[in-house]
Design goal:
This protein has 265 residues and is an alpha/beta fold. The protein is built from nine helices and seven strands; from the N terminus they run βαβαβαβαβαβαααβα. The radius of gyration is 19 Å and the shape is globular. The chain starts with 6 loop residues before the first strand and ends with a helix.
């Protein structure tokens, strides 16, 4: 029960990595607010976790409506009297439009940046004053390995995630005086429904070829890293950018080819 008596808000938390984070927090004793646009999908999670003895509620957040970031925090604080943990999990990109520097429309580039960076800025800004009144808190931003390792496509997504990594350090620096920590977790290829349904097997195999731990991550792998930053176990840790990617991007760029050559011998 590492989060007992803590109040947490997790954005985009009704499926994938966000759902795994919310469930892990609830099982560790937190009162968790699922911040999402779809109340029906949230209710299905609430019903299941409540039967397990967890405390989970819904709060409305539409990632594309700026005013809902402030309202989700204020509603949570009004009901609970505090907020201790904020997980900025929302992220978006349209891979059919978010392409390379030659092909991406400027408006699409800005749309991706505004959605991804704005979600972190607005939610964090709304939460910090309340956390300060409570004596501190923890903000965890879900970034991406794509913010550290340049790609041949999705220029808006990669740029936005790189900006979130830097924004994490800025928040950590500027909020530390109020005992508020801010860290980021950078997932690699993770076996969510979206990934499994939208990425071809050839692409998955190619990606894993360059991943030292030769498997996809699971949403639970990401959730466990986030749990560390949310808990008091990381009370002296802030401004950290933690890659949870199986080592993707770490070794020599010819890693995958060298392993194949060695296996053929």
């Amino acid at each position: 029960m590492r989060l007992k008596n803590k109040v947490a808000v997790v954005t985009a938390s009704t499926r994938g990595i966000g759902a795994a984070i919310a469930e892990t927090f609830a099982q560790e004793g937190a009162k968790v607010y699922l911040a999402a646009r779809n109340p029906e999908r949230a209710q299905a999670m609430i019903d299941r976790l409540t039967k397990e003895g967890c405390s989970v509620s819904y709060v409305y957040n539409d990632a594309y409506k700026q005013e809902t970031y402030k309202s989700m925090i204020e509603e949570t604080v009004e009901k609970e009297g505090r907020i201790d943990i904020l997980v900025n999990n929302f992220g978006t990109s349209d891979p059919t439009k978010d392409l390379d520097i030659k092909s991406t429309e400027y408006d699409e580039f800005l749309r991706t940046l505004n959605a991804n960076i704005g979600s972190v800025f607005l939610a964090s800004q709304a939460a910090i004053s309340h956390m300060a009144k409570n004596g501190g808190g923890s903000i965890i931003n879900i970034s991406s390995i794509g913010g550290s390792v340049p790609d041949i496509s999705q220029i808006g997504y990669g740029t936005s995630k790189a900006a979130i990594n830097y924004l994490t350090k800025l928040i950590a620096t500027q909020a530390a005086r109020d005992n508020i920590r801010c860290n980021a977790v950078l997932p690699g290829m993770t076996a969510t429904d979206a990934v499994m349904q939208n990425l071809t097997q050839d692409f998955q195999d190619f990606f894993l070829k360059h991943t030292p731990i030769k498997r996809m991550g699971t949403p639970e792998n990401i959730a466990q890293a986030v749990l560390y930053f949310a808990s008091d176990e990381s009370s002296y840790t802030t401004g950290q950018i933690l890659e949870v990617s199986g080592g993707f991007g770490m070794p020599t760029p010819v890693f995958g080819d060298m392993i194949e050559m060695k296996n053929r011998r």
